[in-house]
Structure formats: structure tokens, C-alpha cells
Amino acid sequence: MLPVFGLSLLFSVGLCVHAVRTGQPIYWLFIILMLQPLGGIVYLAAVIAPELIRGPTARRIGKSARETIDPGREYRQAKSDCQQSPSVNNQIRLAKAAAALGRHEEAEALYAKAAQGIHADDPVLLLGRATALTELDRFAEALSLMDHLGLEERGRTPAAALTLARVYEGLGRMQEAETAYQWAAGRLPGLEGLARYAAFLAHVGRPAEAREIVTEMDTHVAKANPRFRKEARAWRDMAARTLSGREAGQAWP
After folding, report:
1. Torsion sign (Cα): 189, 194, 196, 200
2. Helices 88-100 & 123-135, crossing angle to 10 degrees?
3. CA gap 181, 176 in Å, rounded
4. Do 108 and 175 fall into the same domain?
5. 176: number of CA atoms within 13 Å, CB side?
6. I need a labelling partner for 132 at 20 to 30 A (CA). Which of 49, 111, 122, 221 fits?
7. How many CB atoms lie under 10 A from the CB of residue 122?
8. pTM for this predicted structure
9. What is the span of the domain harbouring residue 181?
10. Per-block average pLDDT, block size 10, for the chain (253 residues)?
11. CA 182 to CA 2: how far, in whole Å?
């Protein structure tokens, strides 16, 4: 009986923690604790199950599962929608989906096609195309777009600074690249900015500083929300691999 009671208690405590964190009425605590384990089962059915069925958690889980099982699903859907209605928004969606699959030439062409007429100065299109060009190592073309983007106040974002840093690095303008990397890394959500800055430092022969950033990223990964942890760890691992490769004397990718 003791192990059963212990499991019931753990089950109830876990539900109480959920109730407190999600701001449920206090009477749920009494129901869960005073009517073990029936109270907990009622709470599961009345509160948690509807959240999972209709709430954002279910949508996030479903989206993650679909992306894992069928990573090309969003691209196919976006392409179908774009063929039916080639609006700027649909072209942007398709370009993002193409880029996510590594189809950067297609993404660049889509952004270029969308950036016509009244949309020629759209910051989203300018940055998207410049990023695609950067992935294709067409840094001079990307810089021309980034210079134009810099004239738009709406275009001066951490994401734009990160792309500009990569462009400067590709062109060998290392001092300007470092300034842009520093600015982006301190402001960009997620760990991509820190990861790319660490990789840059390794590239220019400053492994100790790069290692400090990787250590900082370890802390961020440990504290990250579980649904963002996989992406955070991927960026951390990218930086660590780059650093290890440079320290081993391997060529820069």
C-alpha cells in the first residue's frame, strides 16, 4: 500500500504544481489533495485534457510531429497556395519554406519576384533575399541589398544585423563583421546570434573567447523552455563543432 500511496501523492503534487503555475482557482488544490487520486483524475479530465485537445500545446506538439515526420509538408502546402494565389504573402511563405529545406536559390528567386513595384523596398523581402544570397555566397549582391535595407528604419533589426555580419565576414571585412555580430548576438532571440558570433571568433583565431560563448550557451540551453531546447542545442552544437574544427586545424567550412 505504501508504494501506491507514494505514487498517488506524487501524482497529486504534480497536478497541484500545474494548477498553481497556470493560475487555476484555489479550490482545485483542495479537490486534488483531499480526494486522492479521484480528485486528480477529475482535474485531468476537466482542465488538462481540454488544454491538450484545443490549446496551443496541442498545436505545437502536432506541428513538431508533422515537421519531424514530413519536413516537406509546409513547402508543398505553401507551393500549392502560391500557385493558386501568387500574392506577396504567399510568395514570402513559400520562400521561407524553401529556405528551411536548403533551397536557397529558389528562395532568392521568390523574394526577387515579390519585391516589385510598391513592394520593392519591403524590409521583409530585402532581408529574405539578402539572407538567401548570403547562403549562396553571393556576398556582394547581398551587401547591395543590405545597404538599401539600412536606409529603412524598419529594417534595422537584430536579424538584419546578423545577416550583415555574415556578409561582411564573407567579404573579408572582419572588423565591421565583429561589430555587427556583437550587436546582433546581444539582441537576437534564441541562440543563433551567439552561435554565429562564436564561430566567427573561432574563424579569426580567438578560440578562448569563442569557448566562453559556448559555455554561456550551455547555460542558456539548460534553462531553455523544453519546446525551444532542441533548436537551442542545435545552435550550441554548431558553434562547438566549428570551434573544435578550428582548434584541430581543419579548414573553415
Report:
1. positive
2. 30
3. 9
4. yes
5. 13
6. 221
7. 20
8. 0.72
9. 104-188
10. 64 86 83 85 80 59 55 89 94 96 97 95 95 98 94 82 97 97 94 97 95 96 87 95 76 43
11. 57
